[in-house]
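Write out the 3D structure for:
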Amino acid sequence: MRNFVKITFFSACLFILPAFSHAQTLTADQKAQLEQQLSQVEAEQAQAEKDLATTQAQSASLARDIAVLSAKIKAAQLNIKAKNLLIQTLGNDIVVKQAHISDLEDHIARGKQALGDILRQTNELDAYSLPEVVLSQRTITGFFQDIDSFDSVNASLQTLAAELEADASSTAAEKDALDVRRNKEMDAKYAIQQEEANIQSDQQQKNVLLAVSKGNEKSYNSVIAQKRAAAAVIRAKLFALRDTAAIPFGQALQYATAAQQRTGVRPAFLLAILTQESNLGSNVGQCYLTNNLTGDGVSAKTGSALSRVMNPTRDVPPFISILNQIGGDPAKTVVSCPQSVGWGGAMGPAQFIASTWILMVDRLSSALNISGMPDPWNPSHAIMAAAMYLSDRGAISGSYTAERNAACKYYSGSACGRNGNTAYGNSVMTLADNIQRTMIDPLQGL
């Protein structure tokens, strides 16, 4: 036993010494050079954005529109260059972080093994009784020498446990930092895709204007008239909302722009959330609450009885209060039907449950500059409420990963990757891109 104790103690001591490799893919000079290039490109990009703003402020003309498109293309190209440089630096950081995490996890695994060996040895020593010592061939002196070794091992247990706790904490922190870098890399790659699409679109518009410039100003006026006619069609197109009448897109965009000014959530993303909810509504259906005590109800379409239409303790009381204050009838107002898991009862275009809506009343009334209860079925009120909720969940940064995670949280309360919510977040981001390119961008400057 003595030899085993000493070997275990020696192994534990070796374990406590740090053993990290810190593999790197870039030298310090290479990384510094990359960062310098990135800083220079970002400065050029900022200047290009200023030049674009100056050009856009000029009076509308054929030459001005061509100059604007040229400036936009240049700014987009510089942004792509900056993002590619950023991806290189992030890629190096990610490799280093992954290596460090691997070292930490190996360190923890060896520590747990050593800890287990020590604990097993402790149990062996505790199992000896005095008669066993006396009757054994070993001397009592030798036995107490083992006890001395045991005391040393026992003292190392606390040190080893503290190291394991510190390593576990460091691993968690490193994984969080790695997630941040991966998100930045994903955002940069998404930005490159967006800018490439922007360049293609702007170049096509520029080619049209260059062709017009070979004609005369009358041809240019014809192009502007066509754009204005197309913009009028977009503004008048009905924008579908869940559980309430559709409104013209121009009005929806006006509400979303007002919400952006208040919360920082971009209109295309906000309108994509409402579109996604409208699409879900066509599948889930509409329900009426019929039993305030149980939360049961009926399908608005078929009249068939349904249970779990609304949580009777959490949502029914505030739901009745909301309807009483806005002049509605709780028994004749549609809410969402229950899905396979959980309760239904979500209200209006933004699909808030009553207990959540009540919590937002004061803040929402202040933002809308109204007195009394905001109406969950009023598009203006619902859009502002959705923007506030998304803002609270990180959508204000405008980055791809931040908006996508905010969308997933809007759907399920959790970031993407949990509760089967990733498809919702991905769909919202696709819708946002489509709304921005086909409905919002064509209205700019008109």
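The longest strand covers residues 286-289.
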